[in-house]
Amino acid sequence: MPTSVPRGAPFLLLPPLLMLSAVLAVPVDRAAPPQEDSQATETPDTGLYYHRYLQEVINVLETDGHFREKLQAANAEDIKSGKLSQELDFVSHNVRTKLDELKRQEVSRLRMLLKAKMDAK
Questions:
Q1: By CB atoms within 10 Å of each CB, which of 60, 82, 101, 113 scores lowest?
Q2: 35, 79, 78, 86: which is closest to 54 by C-alpha?
Q3: Whether the Cβ atoms of residue 95 and residue 103 lie closer than 8 Å to each other
Q4: pLDDT tens string 5-48
Q5: What is the pTM of this model?
Q6: How far apart are CA 23 and CA 35, in angstroms?
């Protein structure tokens, strides 16, 4: 004696299955993602056209332990007078290579800006 399934029977199972999936779903984490402290450690904008480049150079220089110590020990007058630049001779080769690459990128960016300015005239 075969039993026949009514035509709409599968749709009758749909609402309970949907409710079950909602109950068993992974809870949503509504907590705000932790904010990095990079905002607190970032220096204020200098207003210079090359501020981003300057920040990248400082970040690369801080990867060298010896230079980082000298930078932290230096005061603003040493930096402005160029006394700190003498320590650049003692940075590691890979830091020097990264600095060279950053400089090439910045010069290329400035050339593109100059070309765009000349084309606009």
A1: 82
A2: 79
A3: no
A4: 666 666 666 666 666 666 665 666 677 666 655 544 555 666 66
A5: 0.56
A6: 31
